[in-house]
Structure formats: C-alpha cells, structure tokens
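Lecture 7 notes: from sequence to structure.
We start with the chain below.
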Amino acid sequence: MKILYYSLLIVVIDQVSKLFVKGIQIPSLGINIQGFSYGSSIDIIGKVFRITYIENPGMAFGIQIGGKLFLSIFTIIATLLIIYFIYKNRKEKFYLRLSLALILGGAIGNLIDRTFYGVIYGYAPIFYGRVVDFFHLDIPDVILFGKIFYSWPIFNIADLSVTIGFFMMLLGYRKIFNKKEISEESSSNAELNPESINDYNETKKNVL
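Predicted structure tokens for the same chain:
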C-alpha cells in the first residue's frame, strides 16, 4: 500500500498551504503565521490567476448539498470507500492506483477542514468547520442556464487533487476497456472454425 504515500503528500501540501493562507498561532510551539485577511486577494498572473482567501461551507468548488454535518459524514464514508477500493485494486496498474490515491488525499484534506477547523479556530463545533479555498481563476463572463458566472469557483489543492484523480480514473478505465476489446477481437479472429480447418485440408489434398 505504498501508494498511500501519495495521498499523505497531498494532505500535507494541502494543509500547509491552507494554514499559510488562513494563518495560525500556536505560541507554545513558536508558530505564528499571520495569513491573509478574509476576502483579500493577491495577483499572481495579472487578474487571470490570483490567491483569494475565502471559506467554503459546501463541497468542492462551492457545491452545496445538504447541511454541514451531512457533508462531513458523507466525506468520511466516501473516504473509507476509497481506502477499500485502493486495497481491493492493490494489484492493478500504478496509474489507476495513483488516481485513487489522489482522490483520497484530496478528500482527507477537505475533511480535516470540515472536521477540525471549527474547533481549532473556535468558530464552530466538530464536523461543522468550513473549507479554506484560495486558488482564483478569473474567466470571461459566461451565461449558463440563465445564470451569469463571473469567474471559476475558488478552489484549493485538495479540490485540484480530486479533480485530477477523477479524470485520470476515467481515462485509465477507458484505456483498459479499449485494450480488452482489442484483445478479445484479436483472440476471436485468431480462432479458426473447425469446419474451416476441414475445408482447408480438403483443398490442400486436391491441390497435391
């Protein structure tokens, strides 16, 4: 299960980046990170890509489904299922196991926010925390289903990891499915019908 090291790496990077954005003070350990003011923004690539600090009470990319407790419990169940899938597919190709590991790391990263941040920062009980988001991609205004989208939803490293893992999984299983189809077609073409073999032998005798 060495593939879980990739999940751990995602969790560490995700949480460190969030703590630098949100800030944290632990005097006993000599930690004093000021962080950003809520809603503040820093341009990285003009106005196209910025670091903008917000907090998201919903799922990835600001999607709202159910209440906070439901989201926390749902994420815990989903995380356990992903761990089971990784174990079940531990002998599969590295590509597919890595996709699951990335999804797992992202899920755990955001789960930590929802589960503990409310308690750590003193604004909510356990399981009622908010997810720290900060990657801000500005896009031209888009009208979709009558709603105007002014920019891409602000996200974090955990969201990015889940998205990359998801698309890797889709592409990976598609490749495997195509390979299986090609393999089955080749094997079926390679098999000769017994009647065809007899016809071939009769023709050979007549020629000789």
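Points to note: Confidence is low (pLDDT under 50) at residues 203-208. The chain has one domain: 4-184.
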